[in-house]
Amino acid sequence: MPQPFSVQRIDHIVFRVRDLTRSIEFYRTVLGCDVVRQREHLGLVHLRAGASMIDLVSVDGKLGSRGGAAPAKEARNVDHLCLRIEPFHEPDLVAHLAKHGLAPFGSAETNFGAEGDGLSLYFPDPDGNVIELKGPSAGVVASGP
């Protein structure tokens, strides 16, 4: 079976931060990123970074607390890497992962990314880093054959 998708670009990266307000200010003033969505119930802020997104999660929020201690020399800072792929056909993706001895953490679910809401699957790399494969968002026309 050939590769069931091709990577289009990095959709977003998620950083765990100790002080969400300070980090938002840094990314806004130093890098010129704009806040496009805040989800207080998750401790999550989405910032536009060109065609991609930088997401910030508070280490004491619902999502950030899953990563353990606050970012430091011996603590995980990056939550996951999201790769925008095409096409997104869940059965083919699950079969491809299984062929490599991997399984997604659960069924595909809709998540927000650089293009808006779209389906994603999450799975670990060999070191336990989380990879998200994200398909086209609703209303975005897929490119390719």
TrEMBL record:
Which InterPro entries is this protein grouped with?
Glyas_Bleomycin-R_OHBP_Dase, Glyas_Fos-R_dOase_dom, GlyoxalaseI/FosfomycinResist, VOC_core
**Which SUPFAM superfamilies does this chain map to?**
Glyoxalase/Bleomycin resistance protein/Dihydroxybiphenyl dioxygenase
Q: Which residues form the VOC domain?
A: 9-136
Q: Which PANTHER family match?
A: GLYOXALASE DOMAIN-CONTAINING PROTEIN 5, GLYOXALASE FAMILY PROTEIN
- Protein name, please? VOC family protein
Taxonomic lineage: Bacteria, Pseudomonadati, Pseudomonadota, Gammaproteobacteria, Lysobacterales
